[in-house]
Amino acid sequence: MRLRIAMTLAAAGLAVAGCGKVGSPEQPAPLFGAQAQAAYAAQQKAKQEADQARAAKRAENKQAPDDPSTRPLPQAPYGTQITGRPDPFGTSPPSALGNPGTSPN
Asked: Against a cut of 0.70, is the pTM above it?
């Protein structure tokens, strides 16, 4: 009997926990007073216009395709090979020890 009550309370808790609005809470519109309702409507309109302006500014700030910072680099971002120095990615000299993972023994 106790298990059934505990399971019922757990299921009810999960059902209640899943309800609710996601995001920041919003103030509901006033029920009485024409002046309060007009102020609320003006506030909502100003908020909507600000959101639209913010979205337009975000879209405007995206880089244009002719922007030089979006083109690929003309050369590698690292310097050229120093003359007189061996290439670190080239073949090893004949006197160097081999890679231990490639030897047959």
From this structure: no
**Token couple for 58:** 């975000």
- pLDDT single digits (tens) 53-94: 998 888 776 656 666 666 676 666 666 666 777 666 667 677
- The continuous run of DSSP H or E covering 42 comes out as helix 34-60
What is the three-class DSSP state of 84?
Answer: coil
DSSP structure string for 85-105: S--TTSPPPTTSPPPTTT---
Q: How many helices (H) and strands (E) does the chain have?
A: 2, 0
**Both tokens assigned to 18:** 């899943």
